[in-house]
């Protein structure tokens, strides 16, 4: 089947690269492997993969620099692979145009979920098809009527809360950084992360049965928020 998505794995550690590669092959993807940044650049240009899985710790060049180089001319979906504790690196990668991230060590299920969501999201962007409603686990957001419904009951949200919910739900499954959300909701010159936190707490109080264990809007510690998918 030639329409299997082509995934370029950029990873210098052979055992990890082989592990990801066989996992992808057995889950309906065609994997390609690059060990260095240079190899990745040339393989990206010649194979035009559907998605790049980019390890940020590479031997010949900084993964962040490689990300910038690729983003300068290509919109290919990129999921970065970063080590635990390097939240700032993840935020930087996301703000430079990476689509999502996984943290090492990661499980098969998590990696496949990130890849699936990222590919689906990029296809949706390309088709320019806008959904009229968002629905996941009993939560419904009707974009035309501008209402939020939870388990059949309308929930009253403020205009700012609604804006945050629309942004997150239109990117469901994808992590959005604090900075990205703040700039999209309050404008390009704002940097008020505290206001976002307050609004998010209010949204959770309205939507989540247990705000400490959110079901709809998940916290990515040190990075941002992710809305659950249906
Ligand atoms: Ca590495």
Q: How does this structure look, described?
A:
With 230 residues, the chain is of the alpha/beta class. It has helices spanning 14-25, 37-47, 63-71, 87-95, 108-127, 159-170, 178-186, 193-207; strands at 6-10, 30-34, 51-55, 78-83, 100-104, 133-136, 139-142, 147-150, 153-155, 175-177, 217-220, 224-227. The protein has a 5-stranded parallel sheet with strand order 2-1-3-4-5, sandwiched between helices. The protein has a 4-stranded antiparallel sheet with strand order 6-7-8-9, with helices on one face. A 3-stranded antiparallel sheet has the order 10-12-11. Strand 3 (51-55), helix 3 (63-71) and strand 4 form a beta-alpha-beta unit. The structure holds calcium ion.
Helix content: 40-55%
Work out the oligomeric state of the chains in this entry: single chain
Distance between the termini: 28 Å
Number of strands: 12
Helical segment count: 8
- Structural class given helices, strands, pairing? alpha/beta
Question: Which value, in Å, is the CA radius of gyration?
Answer: 19 Å
Q: What amount of the residues lies in strands?
A: 15-25%
- What do the pLDDT scores average to? 93
Largest sheet: 5 strands, parallel
Give the uncertain stretches in residue-range form. Answer: none
**Order of helix and strand elements from N to C terminus:** EHEHEHEHEHEEEEHEHHEE
- Lateral arrangement of strands in the main beta sheet: 2-1-3-4-5
Cofactors and ligands present? Answer: calcium ion
The coarse silhouette is globular
């Amino acid at each position: 089947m030639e329409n299997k998505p082509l995934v370029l794995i950029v990873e210098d550690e052979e055992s990890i690269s082989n592990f990801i590669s066989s996992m992808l092959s057995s889950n309906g993807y065609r994997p390609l492997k690059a060990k260095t940044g240079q190899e990745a650049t040339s393989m990206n240009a010649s194979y035009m993969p559907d998605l790049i899985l980019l390890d940020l710790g590479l031997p010949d060049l900084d993964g962040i620099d490689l990300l910038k180089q690729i983003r300068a001319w290509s919109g290919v979906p990129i999921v970065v692979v970063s080590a635990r504790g390097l939240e700032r690196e993840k935020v930087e990668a996301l703000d430079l145009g990476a689509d999502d991230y996984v943290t090492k060590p990661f499980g098969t299920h998590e990696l496949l979920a990130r890849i699936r969501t990222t590919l689906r999201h990029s296809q949706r962007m390309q088709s320019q098809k806008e959904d009229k409603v968002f629905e996941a686990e009993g939560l419904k957001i009707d974009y035309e009527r501008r209402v939020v419904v939870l388990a059949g009951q309308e929930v009253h949200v403020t205009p700012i809360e609604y804006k945050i919910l629309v942004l997150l739900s239109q990117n469901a499954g994808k992590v959005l950084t604090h900075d990205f959300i703040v700039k999209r909701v309050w404008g390009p010159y704002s940097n008020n992360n505290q206001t976002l936190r307050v609004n998010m707490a209010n949204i959770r109080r309205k939507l989540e049965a247990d705000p400490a264990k959110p079901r709809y809007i998940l916290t990515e510690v040190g990075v941002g928020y992710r809305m659950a998918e249906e």
